[in-house]
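Good morning,

Attaching, inline, the backbone tokens for the sequence recovery test we're adding to the shared suite. The designed sequence is right after.
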């Protein structure tokens, strides 16, 4: 079978893939584009799945990056419900699950991430939801009725957000996670414990420093067993324990993989006509001087756009500093840089554990900034991280918000 030829092929139908289409078309309005997605939906924004969709602020039709007319008018062929089963990097060909053989001039791997699964008895039950995709929301939303009970496994971003969403829809929520407090990889202890106490005051039961060791069917319900000996019955079990970068296709093609598909500052892999962007890409984060992988919405948006432009010949290094955000009841934040709770932190509060700025420092330099209920200050936060001069924590008081 002769391979169908495309100038650009994008593997992955998430935000990075959709953004790459826009990037390509900013530079090349003519080259033929194929976007292959394993999902049955057009590319959509993921944050509403645990935020606005639950609060009635958006409907499903509002979350798509672009409508079908955009892809049609921009000369993009979209192949949904397909996966790429093999990639020959040398010959520049790939084969998808429908048996279609495609050749490309430039390829983007925007394969995203795969939800981490519980390696415990019952962890593979069909009723257990590993929450990440639009289909997960569509399956869970009708079940999350008033008076139902849910166990949320995981105390990070997704676990915290989905617990809040369920609670606000009058579902009884119990959280189980091994950390000492919510989002303990990001929040300093004082802040994390304060947020956790707010959850408890709202009626969410939290079993921190514990973990699920088994899940069993109990009639029409599920029962979660924990290491500390607790047995929790629920109508829903939703798991949000992070993702692993989807790198199998890249590794099978001989591309370097190291906590993601290894890419350079132009988001090129070792094969210069193959690029990587989004949750699966490991790239040099220039502002921090480290190689990293970013799993957030703004990362997918900006990396995808840059990769697309470079596939079309722009030759632009990726130097942008992506931010991420979350809303946990009335506590909202935006953060940029390395917000690792293991770093030294300095909190410049206007209202303690509610409104202010948390700085993350290493070696006398600001590495990350979290803006807590403080808005429109991301550029100032980025400038703090880019500052070359060592700084004492006390000098940060009033640096962004006076």
């Amino acid at each position: 079978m002769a391979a169908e030829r495309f100038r650009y092929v994008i593997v992955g139908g998430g935000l990075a893939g959709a953004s790459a289409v826009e990037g390509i078309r900013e530079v090349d309005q003519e080259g033929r584009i194929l976007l292959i997605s394993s999902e049955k939906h057009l590319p959509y924004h993921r944050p509403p799945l645990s935020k606005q969709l639950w609060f009635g602020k958006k409907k499903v039709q509002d979350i798509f990056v672009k409508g079908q007319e955009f892809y049609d008018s921009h000369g993009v062929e979209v192949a949904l419900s397909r996966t790429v089963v093999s990639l020959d990097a040398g010959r520049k060909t790939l084969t998808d699950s429908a048996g279609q053989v495609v050749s490309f001039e430039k390829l983007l791997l925007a394969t995203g991430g795969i939800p981490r699964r519980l390696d415990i008895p019952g962890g593979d039950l069909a009723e257990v939801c590993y929450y990440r995709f639009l289909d997960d929301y569509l399956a869970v939303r009708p079940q999350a009725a008033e008076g139902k009970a849910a166990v949320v496994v995981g105390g990070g971003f997704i676990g915290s957000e989905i617990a809040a969403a369920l609670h606000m829809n009058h579902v009884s929520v119990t959280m189980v996670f091994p950390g000492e407090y919510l989002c303990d990889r990001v929040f300093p202890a004082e802040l994390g414990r304060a947020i956790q106490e707010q959850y408890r005051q709202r009626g969410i039961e939290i079993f921190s420093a514990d973990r699920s060791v088994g899940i069993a069917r109990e009639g029409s319900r599920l029962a979660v067993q924990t290491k500390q000996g607790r047995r929790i019955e629920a109508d829903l079990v939703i798991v949000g324990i992070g993702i692993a970068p989807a790198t199998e296709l890249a590794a099978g093609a001989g591309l370097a993989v190291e906590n993601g598909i290894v890419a350079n500052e132009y988001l090129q892999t070792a094969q210069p006509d193959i690029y990587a962007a989004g949750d699966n890409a490991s790239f040099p984060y220039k502002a921090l001087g480290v190689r990293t992988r970013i799993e957030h919405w703004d990362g997918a948006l900006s990396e995808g756009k840059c990769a697309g432009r470079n596939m079309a010949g722009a030759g632009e290094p990726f130097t942008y500093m992506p931010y991420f955000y979350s809303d946990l009841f009335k506590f909202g934040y935006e953060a940029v840089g390395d917000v690792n709770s293991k770093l030294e932190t300095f909190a410049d509060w206007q209202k303690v554990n509610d409104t202010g700025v948390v700085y993350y420092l290493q070696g006398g330099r600001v590495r990350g900034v979290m803006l807590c209920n403080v808005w429109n200050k991301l550029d100032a936060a980025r400038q703090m991280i880019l500052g070359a001069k060592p700084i004492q924590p006390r000098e940060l008081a009033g640096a962004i918000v006076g």
